[in-house]
Amino acid sequence: MRTQMATEAGRSTASSDDRALVGPNLLAVLDGVTEKPDNGCEHGVGWFADQLAAELLRSAHLGPAEALAAAIEQTRQLHGGCDLENPDSPSATVGLVQFQGDVLRYLVLGDATVVIDGKRGLEVVSDPAKHTAGADPAALGHALTGEVPLAEVRRVAILSDGAARAVDLFGLFDWGQALELMAANGPDDLIRKMRAVEKEDVKGVDWPREKISDDATIVYFDR
Ligand SMILES: [Zn+2]
């Protein structure tokens, strides 16, 4: 089994709010939602993504939803006196897979994407709705979850929306081709090819988009 990751900030002038996690039984991509002013938090989105990632690893012995709920609750405690009722309080989209015995479990909250290439074909899991993990574990009611027998899994990719746009916005590849590219050249090659297209359309004329380049992160696993 082999796991590779690639991550690149959307802008050279700001640090990325994406986080990639490669744990003993858990792979995940977290994408901190762009910080808004007056969000009631003295820590910031990068801090939030760091804490949520660390707590997720600490709870990796639990199932995906339970682990994320525990991570949200623990991170909530770490905020201290911040105003967590503020609607712009830091939050993140999450895509994760977990290996438990002979089963692969996945969870997607928000517009992260999990792609599973298995014996039954390709399964692409993502939710364009604006659901995120913030200060309230109740958000997990919106999570997309499922499981696949591990023996049927060939490859898995987890992508932040800034990376998945190579397929679902620019259409550079379909998902099958994207996985082939990652298998052959590594996930960094997908990000490289996407950045080249973004640079050719810096004004967002051919592909209208809010962020010309977004933080892009991929965790890729094959057997
Ligand atoms: Zn805070």
Automatic annotation (TrEMBL):
A Pfam family assignment: PP2C_2
UniProt cross-references to InterPro entries, sorted A to Z: PPM-type-like_dom_sf (IPR036457), PPM-type_phosphatase-like_dom (IPR001932)
Domain PPM-type phosphatase per the UniProt entry, residue ranges: 25-167
Protein name: Protein phosphatase 2C
Organism of provenance: Lentzea fradiae
Taxonomic path: Bacteria, Bacillati, Actinomycetota, Actinomycetes, Pseudonocardiales
